[in-house]
Amino acid sequence: MTVEGDDSMTTTESRPLDAPALEVDNYLTYTRGIRSWILTLDHKRIGVMYLISVLACFLLGGIFALLVRTQLVVPDGLIMSQDEYNQAFTIHGGVMVFLVIIPGIPAALGNFILPIMLGAKDVAFPRLNLFSYWLWVLGAIFLVSAIFGGLDTGWTFYTPYSIDQNSAMGGVIPAVTGAFLLGFASIFTGMNFIVTIHRLRPDGMTWFRMPLFLWSLYATAVIQVLATPVLGITLALLAVERAFGIGIFNPALGGDPVLYQHFFWFYSHPAVYIMVLPAMGVVSELIAVHSHRHIFGYAYIAWSSVAIAIFSFLVWGHHMFTSGQSPLMSVIFSFITFSVAIPSGIKVFNWLATMYKGAISWNTSMFYGMGFIVLFIIGGLTGLYLGVISVDVHLHDTYFIVAHFHYTMMGSSLIGFIGGLHHWWPKITGKMFNENAGRIAFMLFFVGYNMTFFTQFMLGSHGMPRRYATYPADAGFQTYHIISTIGSYIMAIGFFTMAGYFIASLFVGRKAAANPWGGRSLEWQCTSPPPHDNFSEQPAVGDCYDFSVLRWDDETNGYVWREDVAHPGHESEHTASS
Amino acid sequence: MSIVGLLATAKIGEATSGGTFWMPENASTAAQGVDDVFYFINNINYFFFALLVLILVWFAVRYRSKPSEHTTFTNDAPVHNTPLELTWTIVPLLIVGVLFWIGMDGYLHLVDAPDDSYPVRVTGQKWSWTFEHPEYGVTEAAELTVPLNRPVRLLMTSPDVLHSLFIPAFRVKQDLVPGRYTSLWFEATKPGQYRLYCTEYCGKDHSKMLAVVTVLPEDEFQNRLGKLAREYEDLDDKDLPAYALNRLYNRCASCHSLDGKSGTGPSFKGLWDRTQKGSTVFTNGKTLKGMMGPGGEFEVPENYIRDSILNPQHLIVQNYTGAMPTFKGQLKQRQIDAMVLMLKNLDSLVDENGNPIEAPKVDEVEVSTGADQ
Question: Interface pTM (ipTM) of the complex?
Answer without folding.
Answer: 0.89
